[in-house]
Specification:
two-stranded parallel sheet; 8 helices; 197 residues; single chain; globular
Length: 197
Amino acid sequence: MHHQPLLVVLRAYDLFELLPCLERLQELGVQHVELAWSTHPHWVPQAIELRQRFLHLRLGAASIVDTAGLAAAAEAGLGYAVSPILDRALIEAAKALRLQFVPGVMSPSEVHLARLWKCSIVKLFPAAAVGLSYWQRLSGPLAGADGLPFCIAAGGLGPADVEPWLAAGVDAVALGGSLANPADWEALAQLVQRLRP
């Protein structure tokens, strides 16, 4: 993510519905894509097939709120799992599965706990609700000797928000439901070009 501080979150009960989006994202040069976890009976084999088909995408699991989702992400061979919540049981389960886990945080207390529990990456969620300057404001009182964790801002952000949020101090930005029309995709294509190292 240091090379491209951008993630795209895709959501569908049947993962194969995401094929056109994944093909387009790969063509655009997007590197990190999260597949939302669901209870679809074929979620794991479908995720495996997508991982094998889209070799240039680093696929992870999104919306993980229980150990069943974590186990599915690990079984599918996905590179990481992202949650909207901070739950120590999920953090420990992910460690046992040797799966990179990104918990969701919002309050100063949650950021502090995530750091105590050795989470090197966190997801600020929902970022749009707290505003651009929020993460920077936390850096003074919370930074400490080790600094704040690597932060992915997510929730309610669109392509036009990515660069302002990066400039405001977060390390990466996740886009989800904002990619709803052709103008959003065009903005994403231009953004990916600007973010090239």
